[in-house]
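To illustrate the input format used throughout this study, we show a single complete record. The first block contains the structure-token representation of the backbone; no residue identities are included at this stage. The design step must infer an amino acid for every position from geometry alone.
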């Protein structure tokens, strides 16, 4: 044991399953913490800890055993040289566990002279202002509720809270990474980390750490439905550390979740995801009533209430109803495209868009033999109209993808039809490729007809190298596309806009019985890059004759 009651008491609770069973990651965390105290010269500053805990008198709640455990390790545990043992902390608990309350108490404590570090500024980050202000507002309300006393120690506005003695300030920050360079924080907080789509904000925020004594970073989050982002990467690292496969590098990983999807239906197991469900607490019955209500709604319609297992139980379902394919299959599309294998090979093209004032995507599809396996290589481009009314609803890092070259913003009032036509021709030309045919939605062809004719492609009699695709064509191809994902035959390279578009898509059954791909949400979640790929796959049978044997005898079509 560690000889610190707040740590040892919690470890005892985990091992004895009191009051309910704990998840496997909590057991592994307890083993990890005990090993640290057994093999390293670390200690808990008990005097500092008790002074911090005395500040609970200003809060309308007291820290629970799991919170005391995290607080002690993250805030008051030091190496023999006097450095923080766990300056970084990742807290992943189910919705309703009180992670923001813990964060509020931690930040309040570190602003005070008890911490002993002046000018220790703290920045709370989140993807929305409301979320960034959650813990900040908790502290603001405490100051307002105890105004007569707190005015001696703090001054505050609607934007900043500052301790007079330490000159340490607390800020909240929106999701924009702009203007964050140059900060010298003592601590940064990342709230609802599951909603972060890339590392841009994280990288900018944490570059200022290390300039102050006792620099810290605290991440608090439930799980969520955004896959492939910073949260998944952090969770994977956490599990490797707790499994003993990686060094912790000073980070404490506190993960609470059910151990399997089957435990969603076992009420006693809900405690594994939410360690704050104590029957003796006054909030227990209200919280349980709400969770039980959400559970009933989830059981009635799992597809519409997927946030219940994802956020309440911290266990996103491995398979979502109506999804295009499992996420692991989407990740498998991140395979390199070997230009040496496609040079001189024929290709077909897919184009998709809803309207030229929004998104438009096009791509070249090659079918090649790679190490004895047939692979479909997809090279895409997406154009985005800067004046699209949906842009402010989209949370994806479009600017980052534009810098990468996967998407391109168009500043005019609409996307000129010539852009995809010229791009397709140029991409084929630089690879010495013949375009066998182009697939495009039957209803969209008219707008691009002239631009396609300019590069010698048309659906008219005498040409027939543009295939107008109908819903029934898509329905016939969906089983083959599903199989292609499962067999890992699709290679897109590292193109996050494609993974994003696939995750935004679902299968839809029309009134006529046709199964097609549709949008999960019509405005903020675009599917054009994926639908362009689907269009190319529908017409891809023309590539089969050129896969094996290196048959490069081109048919009588225009070669660019």
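Output of the design step:
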């Amino acid at each position: 044991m560690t000889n610190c009651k707040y740590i040892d008491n919690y470890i005892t609770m985990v091992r004895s399953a009191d009051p309910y069973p704990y998840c496997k990651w909590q057991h592994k965390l307890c083993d990890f913490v005990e090993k640290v105290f057994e093999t390293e010269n670390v200690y808990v500053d008990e005097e500092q800890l008790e002074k911090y805990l005395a500040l609970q008198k200003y809060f309308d709640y007291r820290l629970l055993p799991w919170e005391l455990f995290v607080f002690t390790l993250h805030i008051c545990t030091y190496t023999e040289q006097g450095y923080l043992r766990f300056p970084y902390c990742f807290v992943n608990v189910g919705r309703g566990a009180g992670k923001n309350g813990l964060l509020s108490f931690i930040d309040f404590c570190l602003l005070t002279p008890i911490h002993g570090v002046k000018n220790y500024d703290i920045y709370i980050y989140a993807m929305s202002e409301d979320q960034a202000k959650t813990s900040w507002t908790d502290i603001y309300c405490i100051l307002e509720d105890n105004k007569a006393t707190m005015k001696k120690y703090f001054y505050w506005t609607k934007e900043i809270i500052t301790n007079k003695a330490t000159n340490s300030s607390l800020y909240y920050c929106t999701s924009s990474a702009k203007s964050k360079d140059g900060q010298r924080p003592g601590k940064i907080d990342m709230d609802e980390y599951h909603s972060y789509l890339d590392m841009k904000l994280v990288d900018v925020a944490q570059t200022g750490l290390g300039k102050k004594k006792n620099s810290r970073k605290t991440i608090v989050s439930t799980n969520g439905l955004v896959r492939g982002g910073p949260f998944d990467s952090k969770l994977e690292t956490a599990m490797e550390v707790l499994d003993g496969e990686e060094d912790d590098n000073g980070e404490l990983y506190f993960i609470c979740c059910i151990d399997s999807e089957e435990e969603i239906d076992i009420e006693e197991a809900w405690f594994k995801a939410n360690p704050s469900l104590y029957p003796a607490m006054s909030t227990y019955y209200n919280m349980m009533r709400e969770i039980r209500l959400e559970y009933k709604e989830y059981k009635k319609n799992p597809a519409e209430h997927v946030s219940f297992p994802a956020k309440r139980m911290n266990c996103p379902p491995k398979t979502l109803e109506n999804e295009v394919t499992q996420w692991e299959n989407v990740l498998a599309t991140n395979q390199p495209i070997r230009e040496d294998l496609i040079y001189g090979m024929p290709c077909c093209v897919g184009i998709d868009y809803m309207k030229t004032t929004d998104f438009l995507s096009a791509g070249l599809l090659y079918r090649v033999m790679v190490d004895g396996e047939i692979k479909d290589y997809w090279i895409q481009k997406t154009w985005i109209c800067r004046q699209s009314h949906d842009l402010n609803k989209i949370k994806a890092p479009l600017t980052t993808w534009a810098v990468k070259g996967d998407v391109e913003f168009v500043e005019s009032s609409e996307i000129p039809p010539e852009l995809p036509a010229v791009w397709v021709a140029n991409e084929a030309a630089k690879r010495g490729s013949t375009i066998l045919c182009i697939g495009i939605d039957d209803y969209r062809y008219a707008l691009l007809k002239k631009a396609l004719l300019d590069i010698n492609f048309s659906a008219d009699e005498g040409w027939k190298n543009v295939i107008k695709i109908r819903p029934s064509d898509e329905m016939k191809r969906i089983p083959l596309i599903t199989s292609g994902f499962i067999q890992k035959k699709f290679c897109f390279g590292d193109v996050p806009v494609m993974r994003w578009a696939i995750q935004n898509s679902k299968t839809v059954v029309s009134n006529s019985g046709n199964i097609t791909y549709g949008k999960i949400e019509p405005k903020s979640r675009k599917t054009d890059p994926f639908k362009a790929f689907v269009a190319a796959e529908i017409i891809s049978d023309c590539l089969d004759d050129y896969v094996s044997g290196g048959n490069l005898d081109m048919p009588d079509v225009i070669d660019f």
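Structural context for interpreting the output: The chain is about 35% helix and 20% strand. The chain has a mean pLDDT of 89.
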